[in-house]
Amino acid sequence: MAIDLDVHGPEHSAIAFHRNSLGTVLRAKDDVPAAQAQYREALRVAEIALGPVHLDVAKILNNLAASQMDCRQYAGARMHLRRALRISETELGPEHPETGSVVHNLASVHSKLGDRTTAIELHERALHIAQAAHGLAHPEVAKVSKGHADTLLRSGDPASARVSYERALAIWRARQEPIRQAEVLADLALAEFDLGNHADAKSSLCQAISLLQQDPPSELESACYFELGRMALQDGRRREGLLLVVIAFLVGKLVGLADDQERHGRLMGLLAGVGVDDREFQDLLIQVEAAYKRDQGQGLLQAMCSG
Questions:
Q1: 228 contacts 240 by C-beta, under 8 angstroms
Q2: Domain 177-307: which CATH class?
Q3: What CA–CA distances, in Å, run from 217 to 251, 254, 266?
């Protein structure tokens, strides 16, 4: 970027490109404030150098909105995505795959803001665009299907959510993507549980954990154990549920989530609801930690998921 600054000056389109790229690097490093600063400067320069309705402006707007979603600035993200969508529709057309990507991102923002009706309509439009552009078995179709399912589930329609989750899962299975499969299975379990299919919900979570255990412990693995425990407790299987929740806590600690106050609050609230005090929790933690360390939880998983 330094050479382009010397050659072209600070308000050339090349500088906008460099700042947009730098923002993406910073966002990948979780430095979201610095990333946003680069995106905003890239946007300012691009508007001067290229005009306010150029496709490169839309790309920067999309990246800026993604960084705003990282820190829950959903209203700002919606504003920038709406503008990006107008540019994309005008320059590329309403059925172009890049337009569909913006539509999908905008749907996610509306879902976060609680406008589920609009979110579902946008997800369905994004799904139509993705299927028309890529075919029925493309990763973009899987990504949009999962977002659609997430919104349907939050809207109280687990049956429709299950259909979309299963579409996404079939694609990731065919492509042999274990992490993507696990992500979908974890959410499919919630839909199954809401539908009263508790055995299917447990099976989905156990499959997800089994896939995740091919890699080091992760936040998603912890979340899967937590949901297994929550479901067991709701079904009256107190001992099994407590052990699973303790495993969730242990895996979370291994991946650096011990200081996550929101997560800790959920955990303690769940345990308090079934009459578990801190002493009982600590005793269980000592027992489970020793068993988990022996085989990274594989024996525990087999024992919990065999019934």
A1: no
A2: mainly alpha
A3: 6, 7, 20
The whole-model pTM stands at 0.86
Give the pLDDT confidence of 29-74 residue by residue, as tens digits.
Answer: 999 999 999 999 999 999 999 999 999 999 999 999 999 999 999 9
Give the pLDDT band of residue 6 (cuts 50, 70, 90): very low
The reported pLDDT for the residue numbered 11 is: 72
Phi, psi of 8 (to 5 degrees): -105, -20
CA 70-72-74 angle, to 5 degrees, is 110
Position with higher pLDDT, 306 vs 233: 233
Give the model's confidence band at 7: pLDDT under 50 very low, under 70 low, under 90 confident, else very high: very low
CA distance 168 to 121: 18
Long-range interactions of 52-59: CB distance < 8 A, separation 24+ = 53/86, 53/87, 53/90, 53/91, 54/87, 54/91, 55/87, 55/88, 55/91, 55/92, 56/13, 56/16, 56/17, 56/20, 57/87, 58/83, 58/84, 58/87, 58/88, 58/91, 58/102, 59/20, 59/84
